[in-house]
Design goal:
single chain, Four Helix Bundle (Hemerythrin (Met), subunit A), 6 helices, 0% strand
Length: 195
Amino acid sequence: MYELALPLVVALVTVAGTLAGVWLTQGNANRREDVRWERESERVASETELRRMDEHRTWLKNQRLAAYSGLLSAANAFWTSLIPLNDVLERQDDPKSELNGRRSILFSAIGACRLLADAQLQGALHALSDAAENVGHRPYADDPSRESAWRHELFDEVGEATRRVEDLLRAELELPERVPHDARYWLSLGKSSGE
């Protein structure tokens, strides 16, 4: 019986050792796989989050670009509608005038942009809104020379506010700076277009 027991014990120990070795090896492999899977999941989650953030930044920049280009267009249209200055105050009294229509469009554009603008740009938008609102005031109605100077001041105030807003818009959207032009530039445009 002992003769049979020894080979049986050796066989059982061998099988148990083999199974234990397989079990330990598989456990180590599973732990390595779990660690690899966890790292891969973290990497994918991180890449997904970065991609989502990048898509959001792109979406927000496109929203700003659309809103800001509409604002800038409205501001420039309002500014140019102030010309001729000699009758701007009379035109602002007519609710159907081009001047009042463009001012309404400007106020709508300013309102839409306030939601997207940083604090500095919001301050510039407030200044532009105030300048546009001032066009309707007549503080010097009894003094024609002072009223004429007031109209020029209003024109300059709206123009300066419009340029300030454009500069801040360009900075926020990471666009090139506005190239300031002097009178010679505008005259050269008139000459090249045959005017």
